[in-house]
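Question:
When you can, review this sequence-structure pair and walk me through the C-alpha cells.
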Amino acid sequence: MTGAQKPEWLSPKQRRIAEVAQQRPDEVFTSLAHLIDDIWMLQAYHRVRKDGAVGVDGVDHTAYEVDLEANLRSLLDRAKSGTYVAPPVRRVCIPKPGSVTETRPLGIPTFEDKILQKAVALVLETVYEQDFLDCSYGFRPGRSAHQALEALWHQTMEMGGGWIVEVDIRKFFDTIEHGHLRELLKRRVHDGVLLRLIGKWLNAGVLEEGKLTFPEAGTPQGGVVTPPTMLRNRP
C-alpha cells in the first residue's frame, strides 16, 4: 500500500495525474508540462516562502510582485519555449546540527527560480507520491518529522520494544551523480520540457564568495525542486 497524498490536497489536474500514476505504477509520463498554465504558476507563487534570502539577482518577493501577472506569464513562456536561463545559486555555509566544526552548504536560488521550481515540483511530486510507502515521511507534502516520530513511537510500543537504528548517507546531496539522477527520473517522467528545466538547474552553477563554479556532481541543498522529487524515486 502506498502513502499517497490525500485527494483533498490536490487540484483537479493533480488528482488526474495521481490517479493515473497510482493505477499504472510502471507508466512513464511523456506529456506533463502542458498542465502548467497561468493558474498553476500563481499557485506555485503562493506556495513559495516570501521570507527567504535573496538569490544572485538580489530580487525579493516585494519587487517581483510589482508586476506579478506579467512576470509569471513571462516566466511560463520562457520555461516552455526553452529560452529560460537558470541563474546560478548563491551558496552560503551554515553550521551543521550536532557538529561543532562541520558546516552544510546551502544553495539559494533567485525568487523567480523558486517559483518555477515549485511549479515543476507540483507536477513531479504528484507522480512520485503514488510510489511511496505509508512509512515514508521525508520531504512529503502534509507530512513532518514529528509525525514520523509519533508513528515510530506507536510501532515501538506495539512491539514491546526493540532496536532503533538511525542511518544517514553522508554528503548525499553533495555527491549524487547527475547522469544517474536523470536516469532515475526518466523511469517515471520523460517530458522534454521538464527534463530540460531540470538539466538547466543541475548545470546552472554555484556562486560562492564571488567565484562561479560548475560542480559535476551534487545538487544544491535549498532548492525548491530538490528534495521531494529529484532525489527520491521509489521508497
Summary: The longest strand covers residues 89-95.
